[in-house]
Design brief:
Oligomer: heterodimer
Largest sheet of chain B: 6 strands, mixed
Order of helices and strands of chain A: EEEEEEEEEEE
Strand content of chain B: over 45%
Largest sheet of chain A: 7 strands, mixed
Number of helices of chain A: 0
Low-confidence stretches of chain A: none
Mean pLDDT of chain A: 90
Helix content of chain A: under 10%
Order of helices and strands of chain B: EEEEEEEEEEE
Number of strands of chain B: 11
Strand content of chain A: over 45%
Number of helices of chain B: 0
Distance between the termini of chain B: 38 Å
Shape of chain A: globular
Helix content of chain B: under 10%
Structural class of chain A: mainly beta
Largest interface: A-B, 23 and 23 residues
């Protein structure tokens, strides 16, 4: 499997500030990573697909100018929540697929809990 | 984390037929979700059903939940080739673990 880390694990910020969340693949070179968001007691919602060296692909309804994704290397993807507002408070999770299992097993990071005051 | 276990592991049907996938889980839940994943893509949420609900519909999708049997089913009616994907159930807590899912192939 693959080991995925996220930093920070928890962040509290004031409304209007920008927050950067890092997702690192510690032992696998990932050309593709995924970013999800989960509100309390809700499902994981796919936000975007992060592609190394190219623009991210955003799901319908996700503002690309609001959630900036940069996949600058094969082991690092970052999600920046720009001008965060209280409604952006959520649990943000990244994942990757290694392509080494027959069923596209996803390896998830531990998540980042964002609270916007 | 709570992992769902789906069956069958693979299902192949003709376009227009219905597809039924089942999921079992082990502990008590607040809700259960079904997701779809096309090859090499992220998980796409389909339906969330709460523990006090028995059935839920969304378009051609129908999900049932039997908490006494700790099982759920996903029915796709009038299947299309575009429904070809892997389908997963999950009851998510802090860690996210998905089972191998059901690989559905809809033949034209």
């Amino acid at each position: 499997g693959a080991v995925v880390s996220q930093h920070p694990s928890r962040v509290i910020c004031k409304s209007g500030t920008s927050v950067k969340i890092e997702c690192r693949s510690l032992d696998f070179q990932a050309t593709t990573m995924f970013w999800y968001r989960q509100f309390p007691k809700q499902s994981l919602m796919l936000m975007a697909t992060s592609n190394e060296g190219s623009k991210a692909t955003y799901e319908q309804g996700v503002e690309k100018d609001k959630f900036l994704i940069n996949h600058a290397s094969l082991t690092l993807s970052t999600l920046t929540v720009t001008s965060a507002h209280p409604e952006d408070s959520s649990f943000y999770i990244c994942s990757l697929i290694t392509g080494q299992t027959s069923y596209n097993e996803q390896f998830f990071g531990p998540g980042t809990r964002l609270t916007v005051l | 984390s709570q992992q769902g276990e789906e069956d069958p592991q693979a299902l192949s049907i003709q376009e227009g037929e219905n597809a039924t996938m089942n999921c079992s889980y082990k502990t008590s839940i607040n809700n259960l979700q079904w997701y779809r994943q096309n090859s090499g893509r992220g998980l796409v949420h389909l339906i969330l059903i709460r523990s006090n609900e028995r059935e839920k519909h969304s378009g051609r999708l129908r999900v049932t939940l039997d908490t006494s049997k700790k099982s759920s089913s996903l029915l796709i009616t009038a299947s299309r080739a575009a429904d070809t994907a892997s389908y997963f159930c999950a009851t998510l807590s802090q860690n996210f673990v998905f089972g191998p899912g059901t690989r559905l192939s809809v033949l034209p």
